[in-house]
Amino acid sequence: MAFQSELQATSVDPAGLTQLIRNLGRDCTPDQYLREFLKNSIQACERALNQNRDDLLYQPTIHLDANPDLREAGLWKLSFVDNGDGMDRDEMVSLLNNLSASGSVKNQHINYGVGAKIAAMTRNHEGIVYESWKNGLGHRIIVKFDEDAGIYGIAPIDLPDGSFDYVIQLAPSEKPNLIDEHGTRVTLLGMSLEQDTMKKPEGVNGSNEAWFINYLNTRFFKIPENIEIKARYRYYSEDPGKTYMTPIEGQKKTLDSISILRGTLRVKGANVYWWGMPKQTGGHGRSTLKGHTALIHEDEVFDLADSRSSRANYFGILIGKERVIIYVEPDIAEQNTSRTSLVKPDGSNIIWDGWQQEFRANMPEDLKGFLEELSSEQTNESHSASIADRLRDLGNLYKLSMYRASEVGDKQGDPDSEISAGGNTRTGIETDVIDDDVVEVDRPRTVTPKRKAMNPVMARLLTKGGISSKEVNNVEFPTVKWVSERTETYLADRVASYDTASHVIVANSDFAGLRDVVKFVTRPEYKEIDGAITIVEDEVRKAFEQALVEVVTGALSFRRGRRAWKPEEFERAISPEALSSAMMIRYWIVQDVKRILGGKIKALSTPEEESH
Hints:
With about 600 residues, this protein is α+β, with helices and mostly antiparallel strands. Helix content is about 30%, strand content about 20%. A hairpin with a 5-residue loop joins strand 6 and strand 7. Helix 2 packs antiparallel against helix 5 and helix 13 packs across helix 14. The C terminus is likely disordered.
């Protein structure tokens, strides 16, 4: 006996539903509908496979191509065709006229039925044409937006006798060649009848000739091996030799086939997959093979971050970010409503920190060797040791008084530090700030450190009683590694990036601001003196290196004390953009370099040159 609720069921009027569709559709990326329709076709083929297990001739197939019937009328309209299980008339009406309906008995997402409709309807007001065959019989439905009424729904289709119907039966001649007894074709009409829906949408990366091929190959980590999926390459070409159907195989197959080395590391709560890639030579789809990081879930790729946004440095990849790809597959995760990223089951954000630290601490030896080889290719030497010696006596100046740590351990170091020591009570003299003056206060303190990620530099200074202000002021200065933006392209137009975990500044020797200073301080006569230009470049680089060390060391002081900056504030302060802005100082760098060059280059001059 069914339970009868006393509640009155909630309902949504058409206008409210339209606004809901708009809001959800806005959260989808411009190419999201490609994933939704392909996923629907894959699931239809999987159901057909189960139903046709004894049919050895059945080959599940999906094609993305221009609808040939509309092409004859001069229209380019993208269509998805599969020979999956198909739908009959009643199923089409039920599934396509109900926003939340789902045709999948294997539904693993609460919003499965919303996906293709939400992602596509808001971008196809002219209509989405569904044609489906089951047991050899086909029907057509058009879902579109009524501008006058402001609602989405199934559109009436005119019949030859002047009447109309919402579902019409199709003639055998209207069936695509790919479909025999069962299958479905979905055609996107766009926002107007004239719109070319094969063309790359605004805001989508990639070339017009292969944008949906690239998207699907990178969005899907793996494609079911028993399903053949192909898409049209260079659809607009009139030359049959230049336009063809090419396989959609998924990102893993591509990375495995091209990578120099690869592996998997099990960390707590996830699998981490990594690939070391060869140097890029350009060409079709090569940008997807550059270094990046991402999450994977149910054979799909989420939260892909490349170039400057890549998280590779947190995994210990400081040099060679463009050559290393890292995917993390969490044990527990769910897709968000728009299926653009992964979240925890409670809807909160996925936290990468633990995976990054564990991978960094247990980095595979072959990956270490690969990175060491890349690092050895960077020839610019660092002046870190001499700069640290030069700045050592000024250590206290890099620790603003009101941000200093106390003499006992409760205010030590980094507010984000993770210290495993237990709390303890101590009495001692600590500094405090009253009316902008630093004073000593005798105060008992209970030390209960937070358990968060600790900077290795701070870890080396950790004592049972905590870190004193004197010890903090003796923290090592960051080291600098010079690279070229030709290999580390994420640094293009940026002077450097700073990695908090390793306390390393990766500096760009090709930074335009640095090259400008080299050019400015190079006097014409230097070109006639052997070794002079090398000295000029080295001294300018040294000046930039010292300035970067000072900027980062100063920024670190704001992470301590009772007025410590928030983590996101500190991240902004040491971002590549902030470091680049800080390094646009000119007067003192130029004056210092000129002073040093005067003595060094004079020493290189021969007596004959000096007489002139």
